[in-house]
């Protein structure tokens, strides 16, 4: 059976060019970058070159790039590395658990935390961030693109607010990297986390922009790697893979690949929304406060090109994920499994969806290698699966308690 992978926001496969770039660093150039002999120096130069690539990507100095194990570590480092008891931390209720769980932990250690809720569209209103500020606010952390809805947050405006308030600003850009033009100076952030495996690089490696002078305390101590900001023998092959994937991602933004992905996503979305009892999560909601219908029409919510999140009334999202899997299509539900119970997505709930609709939502996230044929196939199998599930659904029959 053919398989169509539409779960790129969970992870992406390595591109052949990335594997080719990494291969020598597991085998003939296996040296430890801290060793002074030739083998070590080969590894060191590979890391130096990768750092230049990442600095170009972030638009920062080489010394402002810290390699790490990925998005979770970057997010944790920003929060644990900057906040102390008595500080105030502003973040949002739609962040990834790498931020939310770290926020919960510092909250238990004497840091005051404010979680700003999104508008029903999934957008964070920068004015809400401003309103949450206090004199003790030390850090603001807001994601660039939401992993479930793809909604792009107004980070530049939030960066200006952080600067006016004299607070540090961290961006979890794991889902934005490679999907939107990137520039940490324009974003106005002090810290920015990205992860290789979301952009066709290897898992377990990432990078963080740390603006010069940001007093970040290292999460992992030991050797003097990464200018003492992250100890541990460097994952040379991983770092090389991250850099190669990043180069390819920058190219894809310029050569029209992401525009092509956006068109495919739009066709998929229109096809799915043509089904009765469906709707888009991450859109302006008519009647939402401050939005007349004209503004609503002319003001679509900015979203990452590859993501759409749709609710399907009268069915369980989990059942639809399984039905589509059996047809060869990989997608994700907007829900997470905690101790065996399916919890509705915290993102969709924060946007104001009720539990039933949040549980009945699916995320389709396209790879940049997606094709028209993939969309055709998905548009063929989803209506069948939805029709079948609705016919047998206790939700549709109103028999679920
Ligand atoms: N932040 C966001 C928005 C994510 O989507 C993810 C992964 O799903 C992470 C952080 C965690 O990144 P990693 O898997 O590299 O630890």
Give a nutshell description of this structure.
By secondary structure, this protein is an alpha/beta fold. It has helices spanning 16-22, 38-58, 71-82, 97-107, 126-132, 155-165, 184-187, 225-228, 236-254, 257-273, 293-298, 317-326, 346-350, 355-359, 372-392, and strands spanning 4-5, 65-68, 88-92, 112-116, 137-143, 168-172, 191-195, 206-210, 278-280, 307-312, 329-330, 332-333, 335-338, 341-344, 361-365.
Describe the protein in words.
The chain is an alpha/beta fold and 401 residues long. Helix content is 40%, strand content 16%. It is built from 15 helices and 15 strands. It has helices at 16-22, 38-58, 71-82, 97-107, 126-132, 155-165, 184-187, 225-228, 236-254, 257-273, 293-298, 317-326, 346-350, 355-359, 372-392, and strands at residues 4-5, 65-68, 88-92, 112-116, 137-143, 168-172, 191-195, 206-210, 278-280, 307-312, 329-330, 332-333, 335-338, 341-344, 361-365. A seven-stranded mixed beta sheet has the order 2-8-7-6-5-3-4, with helices on both faces. A four-stranded antiparallel beta sheet has the order 9-10-15-12. It has a two-stranded parallel ribbon with strand order 1-11. The longest helix is centred in the N-terminal third of the chain and has 21 residues, at 38-58. The two termini are 37 Å apart. The mean pLDDT is 93. Bound molecules: pyridoxal-5'-phosphate.
């Amino acid at each position: 059976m053919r398989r169509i992978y539409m779960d790129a926001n969970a992870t992406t496969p390595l591109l052949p060019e990335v594997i080719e770039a990494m291969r020598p660093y597991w085998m003939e150039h296996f040296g430890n970058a801290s060793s002074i002999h030739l083998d070590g120096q080969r590894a060191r130069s590979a890391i130096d070159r990768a750092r230049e690539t990442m600095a170009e990507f972030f638009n920062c100095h080489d010394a402002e790039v810290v390699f790490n194990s990925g998005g979770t570590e970057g997010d944790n480092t920003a929060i644990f590395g900057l906040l102390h008891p008595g500080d105030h931390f502003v973040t949002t209720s739609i962040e990834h658990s790498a931020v939310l769980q770290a926020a919960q932990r510092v909250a238990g250690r004497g840091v005051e935390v404010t979680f700003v809720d999104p508008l029903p569209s999934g957008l964070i209103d920068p004015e809400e961030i401003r309103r949450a500020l206090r004199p003790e606010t030390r850090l603001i952390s807001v994601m660039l693109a939401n992993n479930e809805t793809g909604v792009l947050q107004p980070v530049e405006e939030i960066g200006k607010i952080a600067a006016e308030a004299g607070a540090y600003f961290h961006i979890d850009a794991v889902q934005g990297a490679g999907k939107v033009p990137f520039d940490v100076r324009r974003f106005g952030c002090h810290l920015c986390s990205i992860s290789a495996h979301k952009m066709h690089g290897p898992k377990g490696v990432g990078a963080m922009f740390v603006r010069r002078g940001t007093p970040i305390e290292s999460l992992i101590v030991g050797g003097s790697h990464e200018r003492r900001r992250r100890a541990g023998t460097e994952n040379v092959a991983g770092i090389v893979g991250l850099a190669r994937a990043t180069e390819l991602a920058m190219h894809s933004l310029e050569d029209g690949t992401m525009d092509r992905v956006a068109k495919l996503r739009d066709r998929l979305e229109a096809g799915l929304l043509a089904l009765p009892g469906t709707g888009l999560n991450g859109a302006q909601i008519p009647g939402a406060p401050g939005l007349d219908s004209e503004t609503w029409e002319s003001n679509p919510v900015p979203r990452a090109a590859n993501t759409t999140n749709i609710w399907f009334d009268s069915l369980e999202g989990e059942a639809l994920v399984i039905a589509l899997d059996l047809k060869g299509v990989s997608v994700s539900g907007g829900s997470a499994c905690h101790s065996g119970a399916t919890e509705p997505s915290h993102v969709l709930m924060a946007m104001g969806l009720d539990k039933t609709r949040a549980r009945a939502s699916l995320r389709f996230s396209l790879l940049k290698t997606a094709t028209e044929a993939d969309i055709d196939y998905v548009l063929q199998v989803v209506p069948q699966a939805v029709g079948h599930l609705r016919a047998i659904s206790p939700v549709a029959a109103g028999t679920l308690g």
